[in-house]
Amino acid sequence: MKKKAISLLLAAMLLLSLTACGGEKTTESPAASIAPSAEASQTYTVGICQLVQHPALDAATQGFKDALTEKLGDKVIFDEQNASGDVPTCAIISNQFVSSNVDLILANATPALQAAQTATSTIPVLGTSITDFATALGLNNWTGATGTNISGTSDLAPLDQQAAMVKELFPDAKNIGILYCSAEANSKYQSQAMTEYLTEMGYSCKDYTFSDSNDLQTVTTAAAAECDVIYLPTDNTVASNTEIIKNVCVPAGVPIIAGEEGICAGCGVATLSISFYDLGYTTGQMAYEILVNGSDPATMQIQYAPIVTKEYNVEIAKALGITIPADYVAIAAE
Amino acid sequence: MDILAYFASLKPLNLIMSLPGNVAQGVIWGVMALGVYLSYRLLDFPDLTVDGSFATGGAVTVVLILAGVPVPIALVAAVLSGILAGMITGLLHTLLGIPGILAGILTQISLWSVNLMILDGANKAVNVDKFTLIVSLRNIGNSIITALGFAVVLIMLLYWYFGTEQGSAIRATGCNPHMSKAQGINIDNMKVLALCISNGLVALSGGLMSQYQGFADIKMGQGAIVIGLAAVIIGDVLGDALFSKRMNFAIRLIFVVIGGVVYYLVIGLVMWLRMPTDLLKLLTAAIVAVFLAVPYLRSKAKNSFSLAGKRGV
After folding, report:
1. What one-character-per-residue DSSP string does A210-261 give?
2. Mean pLDDT, rounded, for B220-247
3. What does the angle CA A163 – CA A223 – CA A110 come to, to the nearest 5 degrees?
4. Do B22 and A95 touch (CB under 8 A)?
5. Which of B122, B137, B278 sits opposite A95 (nearest CB)?
6. Which of B188, B222, B256 is the last residue of a domain?
């Protein structure tokens, strides 16, 4: 009987431990609820929901925090959460931000933005690292601003200029392969736009999609065998596996144009680069406008990366014997 | 001092305020866990199809809602898609003799392609401002009631069904396939049937979840089996502690759903603690491991050797 009582107690403690820390202080709740609103004129709480640990997304979050900290100093408190790649956890995080009534939510990556959009129609939400806001939010009649509590920054590098780069470096190529992960909506969007531009210039394009890093090598080998040049969009899975792509494409002599600097540094020849840190920084400035100057996200235009630069990878360009025009900047070796 | 500042920065009120949302999501995943319970516990078949069929349910629901189909019909279609997925796993196993785990994995990875085709991409939003959704993060109170309604009706249906001759045959198949076969039960049919029901429930849960979060994503089912198993086992432990051996089938099912809720309360707690975000998975695993360890430690404490040791014999 004693044993049973102990085990019951153990189980009960487990359960209670979930709520107890909250429960015991309910008596203080009036004070706790007054405190934030009294401080509201001075400090701002910003919830950050990031989908997954990832160099580009991390840089965007860092840029956002730096911009706001620069302007507000210690008057801004960040509640930074990362769903560690679990899509349903984004809903949990959004719910947490809304129920604690943060002043602004930064949603980093598409599912995070969608969960935040569903969770609140009143708290301002800024998205970053989003390629196409209209598709992500399910909006028709896209005008450049959402008309709701949402605004933000898009990581779309100007694709027409990237297509022009292919033309500039490889005028004699015929077949362009576009390689990306089938799980990433952003990549598909870029591939479609890129195909349109390249086809107009007289190239023929083909998509090569893989479902995860396990198929990547096989798919890349097929692409390298059939194409003269490969284009890589700003694909997160590609970004994490550039070594595989490099080991297939450099020996095969197939040059790669990449959608962003990180991928280009790993396996590309050249890129038109945007910086995710700058993107996050721009988002932080938007947040300042909303929090302090009372701007309305509904009418704020979606911002793009402020600066784009033509960059190239010295080592791979040399290995493939490609002459790079003088206006390209070499990517610094790490 | 840092530790004190850390505790001072935690706001208990925020934890309490976020509870309803975690409960809503927990009940929705509880429906999914009912499906896992059927395959894993009743049939003794660790079915990995669910990672795929959960996303399939979500994808079918969102695509149909966007096409203007009423939500209830979209959910029925989601259930049917799940049943189909379960049937494929079942047939791979029974007709083609592929081992259970492998059959589930095969269906799961093929569903990745199927889901991409259904969604026509990796992600599709269903905007709560434009469509009438039955559950949504926007309206958590109603979502809890609706999700609980689903759970209650499903538990009643399952309780009734597994008391019928056919349902009992499924349970017998799980308990002892050889004996069941000797009794004239077609165990292959029973396995396929149970997998169909199980994945139908999982897909229904996926359909609810996609509405709740406002989108369907190709990756939304990733790791679903882990959450499902955790819910089943947490439910078992709590049920055993509270009801001991007096748990009947209906109470077991209820505790499966409670297990889902507890799982998401744990996640909410970990988030609230504001630990370094990279620790999320580790802390979640640690807390679930505690639940898993309790029944083992209890049984160890009860076994005759340790009792004898205490008596000093």
Report:
1. ESSHHHHHHHHHHHHHH-SEEEE-S-HHHHHTHHHHHHHHHHHT--EEESSH
2. 88
3. 60
4. yes
5. B137
6. B222
Asked if residue B131 and residue B69 are part of one domain, the reply reads: yes
Report the distance separating Cα A305 and Cα A303, nearest Å. Answer: 7
- For chain B, what is the domain count? 2
Q: Which domain holds residue B255?
A: 223-295
**Residue B304 lies inside a defined structural domain of this protein:** no
CA triple A304-A307-A308, angle to 5 deg: 95
Instruction: Give the pLDDT score at A21.
Output: 40
As a whole number of Å, the CA-based R_g of chain B is: 21
Question: Is residue B134 in a domain?
Answer: yes
Cβ separation B294–A7 shorter than 8 A: yes
Interchain contact, A18 vs B280, CB within 8 Å: no
Same domain, B68 and B98: yes
DSSP notation for chain B: -HHHHHHHH--HHHHHHHHHHHHHHHHHHHHHHHHHHIIIIIS----TTHHHHHHHHHHHHHHHHHTT--HHHHHHHHHHHHHHHHHHHHHHHHTT---HHHHHHHHHHHHHHHHHHHHTSSEEE--TTTS--SSBTTBHHHHHHHHHHHHHHHHHHHHHHTTSHHHHHHHHHHH-HHHHHHTT--HHHHHHHHHHHHHHHHHHHHHHHHHHHTEEETTTTTTHHHHHHHHHHHHHHHHHHHHGGG--HHHHHHHHHHHHHHHHHHHHHHHHTT--GGGHHHHHHHHHHHHHHHHHHHHHHHSHHHHHHHHT-
- Asked if residue B93 lies in contact with residue B99, where contact means CB atoms within 8 angstroms, the answer is yes
Are B199 and B265 contained in the same domain? no
Tens digits of residue pLDDT in B131-178 = 999 999 999 999 999 999 999 999 999 999 999 999 999 999 999 999
- Say yes or no: B112 and B46 in one domain: yes
Pairing of strands A44-50, A104-108: parallel
How close A218 comes to chain B (CA, Å)?
Answer: 17
B215 shares its domain with B229: no
Q: Is the pLDDT of residue A29 over 50?
A: no
Do B227 and B174 share a structural domain?
A: no
Residues B210 and B257 in one domain: no
Q: C-alpha angle with apex B199: B198 to B202, nearest 5 degrees?
A: 95
C-alpha–C-alpha distance, residues A189 and B121, integer Å: 9
Residue A297's identity, in one-letter code, is P
Chosen domain end from B205, B222, B239: B222
Q: Are A308 and A272 in contact (CB under 8 A)?
A: yes
Asked whether residue B20 is assigned to any structural domain, the reply reads: no
Backbone angles phi, psi at B218, to 5 degrees: -60, -25
Q: What is the total residue count of chain A?
A: 334
A52-106: pLDDT as tens digits: 988 889 999 999 999 999 999 999 999 999 998 889 999 999 999 999 999 999 9
Task: Check pLDDT > 50 for residue A37.
Answer: no
Looking at the structure, do residues B246 and B186 belong to the same domain, yes or no? no
The pLDDT of residue A3 is: 54
- B213 vs A148: CB contact, 8 Å cut-off? no
Which residue of B144, B219, B236 is the best one to mutate when testing the A interface, meaning the one whose CB has the most A CBs within 10 A? Answer: B219
Average pLDDT over residues A306-331: 89
CB contact under 8 A, A91 and B212: yes
Please check whether residue B163 lies inside any domain of the structure: yes
More confident position, A38 or B93: B93
**Å between A253 CA and nearest CA of chain B:** 31
Predicted local confidence at residue A35, as pLDDT: 41
pLDDT in the model for residue B12: 86
